[in-house]
Amino acid sequence: MHKITVTEVTEALKKCVDPEIGVNIVDLGLLHNIRIDGSNNIYVRLTMTSPMCPVTSVILADVQLRLEHIADAGKVEIDLVWEPAWTPEMISEEARMNMQV
After folding, report:
1. What does the pLDDT look like over 76-99, one tens digit per residue?
2. Taking the model in full, what pTM does it have?
3. Strand locations in 1-101 (E)
């Protein structure tokens, strides 16, 4: 069994795209924390752009599925949080340039 890295998890999450905005959740700044324990259990703390986001369940299901499909992944736990609140300043420079925000 290989040890899963934060980089592997981040790369998997870059494939999770907010269907309303068309930008992945990492570049949108929705990801707050990734933790991987010695048994390859993955804990992810993330937020949405708004508590009223209509695609929250779609994004969370995509995150769960992509993380479960990482080779040797153990249990996946997603913690949806609202603090700190998301702001447009959290968008990566690259995504910002593509979106012209």
Report:
1. 999 999 999 999 999 999 898 887
2. 0.92
3. 17-18, 23-24, 31-36, 42-46, 76-80
